[in-house]
Design brief:
Elements (H helix, E strand, L loop, with lengths): L1 H10 L1 H21 L12 E7 L5 H16 L5 E9 L2 E8 L5 H15 L10 E2 L8 E8 L5 H16 L5 E7 L4 E7 L1 H7 L3 H11 L3 E8 L2 E7 L6 H5 L2 E5 L2 E4 H4 E7 L16 E6 L5 H16 L7 E7 L1 H30 L2 H24 L6 H34 L1 H4 L4
Helix pairs in contact: 2-12, 3-4, 5-10, 11-12, 11-13, 12-13
């Protein structure tokens, strides 16, 4: 069989060359299309359901949120298992699908079940899906270097400017903010004054919520002109909150400042982010979307950060805390260097031992064609270019070279023996 294939290839050399050139071109295209990452993605095919109900204990979260969600998410097609986790104020449900299930099809199925399961949860509690990323999707970390800003202002800058800009980058599933304080208005209520003015705490909450709103009106026509009337009621300062009326006492309005003090503060924090012992920092974690090219996404993030930098206040800049592209570039540079080293070694060895440049050329041609074909197979099986796959290719280069040298030397020896055999030189009748 092998002999017939070799004979067929020798009789149709032009076709073999054209096929090899076509495979090389296809392989180069596959190299450009293959996702590049530093580490292989071995995480499970999962969809995360996150639910927040602050102030409740883990046992209450387990009984009223996690258990109903896990029970109603059972029976989704292609689900292997469902895991639930309850903690203070938060619930996590991990729906693990089979490996051949499409991640976006799985998310749609989970959303369909959540629409039904939402009615079983406490009022005001809404579950949401986690980002469509994987466990190794944290490709880029950055911090905000702003020495003249407090942590609350840095967090506001991160949440309302930087984060929203970076989330528009193609391939980014989420930009998770960390560190600092989430600024909020805090009302410190005096219970004695509440009792004196006969105002309940829920009345205070409802009045404050109702007065922090814009309301629409009708159209008012005057002198052939139409004017839209609306009421502006959004709170813009601490004084606006203090002047909200929450009741009356003997015909006199009772305002928020009469029963409580208003102050600026930060939301409840479950931890801090410290950078190398130099103090707290504010920044973000960029999560890559499932199946994207990590190197391409990181490059687009850096380009976008350059545009965002122009809109930052004076003296504020970005500082990179983790950049996976450095490891990715090191991996790709390693395979390139190994390829050049192997080609050089093959040339030297074959020329020294065989003194035949055509044999060396035939071996050298095999290396790029074989590597290009390997990337075609990587794309076919959905494997990215990472440390593991590139290491396998680097090791395979040595096998390719060894086989090429052995076959060339064997062919050279057999031809030499055939030419030196006197019987083969006699003319046949």
């Amino acid at each position: 069989m092998v002999q017939k294939i070799i004979e067929l290839a020798l009789r149709n050399r032009l076709i073999v060359v054209l096929m090899a050139g076509g495979m090389l071109a296809w392989g180069i295209y596959a190299i450009n299309q293959n996702p590049i990452d530093a580490i292989p993605d071995l995480s499970e095919n999962q969809v995360i359901v996150f639910t927040e109900w602050m102030g409740r204990s883990p046992q209450v979260i387990e009984d009223q949120i996690t258990y109903p969600l896990v029970s109603n998410l059972q029976g989704i097609p292609k689900v292997k298992t469902i895991r639930g986790s309850s903690m203070f104020g938060m619930s996590f449900v991990y729906v693990i699908f089979e490996d051949n299930a499409d991640v976006y099809w799985a998310r749609t199925r989970v959303l369909e079940r959540l629409n039904y399961a939402r009615r079983l949860l406490p009022q005001g509690v809404t579950p949401s899906l986690g980002p469509d990323g994987t466990g190794v999707g944290h490709v880029f970390w950055y911090t905000i270097d702003a020495k003249d800003m407090d942590l609350g202002e840095q967090r506001a800058l991160q949440d309302w400017y930087v984060k929203l800009a970076l989330q528009t980058v193609p391939g980014v599933a989420e930009v998770a903010s960390f560190g600092g304080f989430e600024k909020q208005y805090q009302l410190v209520v005096d219970p004695i004054k509440l009792q004196y003015y006969n105002i309940s705490l829920m009345d205070l909450v409802n009045k404050v919520r109702a007065n922090n709103n814009d309301v629409g009106g009708r159209k008012f026509e005057m002198s052939d002109m139409a004017y839209i009337i609306r009421g502006l009621g959004y709170v813009k300062s601490r004084e606006d909150l203090e002047s909200i009326a929450v009741g009356n006492y003997d015909g006199i309005p009772v305002r928020v400042q009469d029963i409580a003090s208003v102050q600026m503060g930060g939301d409840l924090r479950l931890g801090i982010f410290d950078e190398n012992g130099l103090g707290e920092r504010v920044g973000g974690i960029v999560v890559m979307r499932y199946g994207e090219n990590a190197d391409r996404v990181i490059g687009a993030i850096k380009k976008k950060m350059g545009e965002v930098q122009k809109g930052l206040p004076k003296g504020v800049s970005f500082k990179v805390a983790y950049d996976r592209s450095e490891l990715i570039e090191a991996s790709t540079d390693n395979i390139k260097h190994k390829l050049l080293e192997e080609i050089a070694v093959v040339c030297i060895i074959v020329i020294i031992f065989l003194f035949h440049w055509r044999s060396a050329l035939s071996i050298i041609i095999q290396i790029p064609i074989t590597i290009a074909i390997s990337f075609i197979l990587l794309n076919a099986f959905g494997v990215s270019s990472n440390i593991m796959s590139l290491t396998g290719i680097a090791l395979a280069i040595g096998v390719i070279v060894d086989n090429g040298i052995i076959m060339s030397e064997n062919a050279y020896r057999n031809l030499s023996e055939w030419q030196n055999n006197p019987a083969n030189l006699k003319p046949q009748k």
